[in-house]
Specification:
single chain; alpha+beta; Uridine Diphospho-n-acetylenolpyruvylglucosamine Reductase, domain 2; Uridine Diphospho-n-acetylenolpyruvylglucosamine Reductase, domain 3; Uridine Diphospho-n-acetylenolpyruvylglucosamine Reductase, domain 1; 3 domains; 6-stranded antiparallel β-sheet; 4-stranded mixed β-sheet; 28% strand; binds flavin-adenine dinucleotide
């Protein structure tokens, strides 16, 4: 068993800029507020420090997971035996090109999605309004191809810049990213660093109105303020997971502190002291009930960080 702290400090020397924590409790970074300690938790300040972390982990065969806002992942109650990297410091927006009709933006992956929307509303950049109320970061939204009301983030993407586990940085044009429903299709080992997106120029008032409308619709239908990981299951072809779960009588179903939301049945909310194990048990119960009542096996939308299995 290597002493990670000692090894990290020895290898990085003064080259690493950013924050490094050993045994950081992941529940602090989880929308569900669950999860145990990560062996190493790093928050690099720049691309060179990020690359050094990746090379350190690759060289020592330490598993790596990327964390955005933690709003669509389930963290193991026993934590993660590896390195969790967060890109919170990668949060720049820059105008690349602007005409009277369009604007091309460069956005870094750690930028909170709602901060980007606010900036766009302020400046009169239209095209992201349907993402109003979706928590998390730009990087997470790209990996999950997040969307709402029939639109997805892929609709505005021109290209993304990624770094691989061997430290190679490359640009991938939109046409080469195999986006599907709630997935980017990018290779598992790739870390999204930034994206170029194109939006339309429009009246800021109109954009703000549109954001408020989407937000109101979302608040009416989803448990926005509760601790959750977003939709638990993917919608099966031609149907809605929430409808199937509600019809199977699961609203209000509980395991420990986790409960199927009474607002939207495809959300599991942490009512207080719920754990990730409770979440997994409740997911299994819901899955079985829907299978029994509708004959459909639901697929998870929530991603599991590291090894999500039980002890
Ligand atoms: C109340 C609530 C409402 C929601 N509503 C919606 C909705 O309407 N539509 C929707 O699509 N989703 C919704 N979600 C789910 C979630 O917020 C989105 O999918 C969000 O975009 C995830 O972003 P994140 O930064 O939190 O990603 P995380 O949860 O941190 O990560 C998600 C996945 O992306 C990976 N990842 C994150 N950043 C990077 C990166 N830079 N490079 C490589 N991999 C990365 C992680 O490893 C993980 O596999 C909702 C969630 C909540 C809690």
């Amino acid at each position: 068993m290597i002493d990670l702290k000692k090894e990290f400090e020895k290898e990085m020397g003064n080259d690493f800029m950013g924050e490094v924590l050993f045994g950081e409790i992941l529940s602090k970074h989880s929308g569900l507020a669950t999860g145990g300690p990560a062996d190493i938790f790093v928050n690099p300040s720049d691309a060179m420090s990020l690359k050094k972390c990746i090379m350190f982990a690759s060289g020592k065969r330490i598993p790596v997971e990327i964390l955005g806002g933690g709003t669509n992942v389930l963290m193991n109650d026993r934590g993660f035996r590896g390195m969790v990297i967060t890109l919170k410091n990668f949060n720049m927006i820059k105008v690349i090109n602007e005409t009277s009709e369009k604007v091309e933006l460069f956005v870094e992956a750690g930028m909170p999605l709602q901060r980007l929307l606010n900036r766009c509303a302020e400046k009169g950049y239209k095209g992201l309004e349907c993402l109003a109320g979706i928590p998390g970061t730009v990087g997470g939204a790209i990996i999950c191809n997040s969307g709402s009301f029939g639109q997805e983030i892929k609709d505005v993407i021109d290209s993304v810049v990624v770094i691989s586990m061997s430290g190679m940085i490359k640009k991938i044009d939109r046409i080469n990213i195999p986006f599907t429903y709630r997935a980017s299709g990018l290779d598992k080992g790739l870390i999204v660093l930034s994206a170029n997106i194109t939006l339309e120029r429009a009246d800021p008032q109109e954009i703000r109105r549109s954001i408020s409308d989407y937000l109101a619709r979302k608040k009416a239908a989803q448990p926005i303020g509760a601790r959750s990981a977003g939709c638990v299951f993917r919608n099966p072809d031609g149907d809605y997971a929430g409808r199937l779960i509600e019809e199977a009588g699961c609203k209000g179903l509980k395991v420990g502190g986790m409960e199927v939301s009474s607002v939207h049945a495809n959300y599991i909310v942490n009512t207080g002291d719920g754990t990730s194990d409770d979440f997994i048990d409740l997911m299994k119960k819901v899955e079985q009930k829907v299978l029994d009542s509708a004959g459909i096996r639901l697929e998870p939308e929530v991603r599991i960080l590291g090894d999500g299995t039980k002890k």
